[in-house]
């Protein structure tokens, strides 16, 4: 059954009108007719099944049938801090990590941001990234839509999450200060319901940045000797967290 993200649904009003892009997709792409059912979710965890009552020129009228039990969210809420890279790399990381269950994305500006100062995303770019998160939630069956936040300087981003949850920084240098991600995940308290993961830009973090991140309370971890692209590292980290917490088919 087709699913669509519709914020601010009032479940007390059984008549729900759909317009804009959703109405155009239902009418011109899916060619829905009166009597067909679709599902709507508001991004906060609630989902409903509705029946199409009328297909108009620019809008579609539906009637709420019932609430739907949404797909369960992972037991661990994962925040992904993504070092800024080329847009297509960030977009892939957001798409796939949303499908896997990430709840929050923070683009991070560091010394080796691709493109220098021009690497900071524009408002339109941030809107696109948020839209990618919405589409990935629709496709994967999630009733939660992760938030893509405004870009932050590296240490500001670290400080915004470190007080509330463990933060693992992916550090490409294998040194005494770093340990395998699997070891770090096994060592955290089972009661941790939230984890943050920091993925560097394609050039990685400088040694000074890594030191500052560690001194702020983060754990430097390694994904092994193979060099992974930043988007691959993000997907691998998200998958490892889910596996360790028993949320990857376990």
Describe the structure.
By secondary structure, the chain is α/β, with parallel strands linked by helices. It has 2 domains: 66 residues, Ribosomal Protein L25, Chain P, CATH 2.40.240.20; 168 residues, SPOUT methyltransferase, trefoil knot domain (Alpha/beta knot, 3-Layer(aba) Sandwich), CATH 3.40.1280.10. It has 7 helices and 13 strands. β4 and β5 form a beta hairpin. The longest helix has 18 residues.
Shape: elongated
Q: Which CATH architecture of the largest domain is right?
A: 3-Layer(aba) Sandwich
* Helix/strand structural class: alpha/beta
Which value, in Å, is the CA radius of gyration? 20 Å
Proportion of residues in helical segments: 25-40%
Task: Please work out how many helical segments DSSP would assign.
Answer: 7
> CATH H-level name of the largest domain... which superfamily?
SPOUT methyltransferase, trefoil knot domain
**Secondary-structure element string:** EEHEEEEHEHEEHEEHEHEH
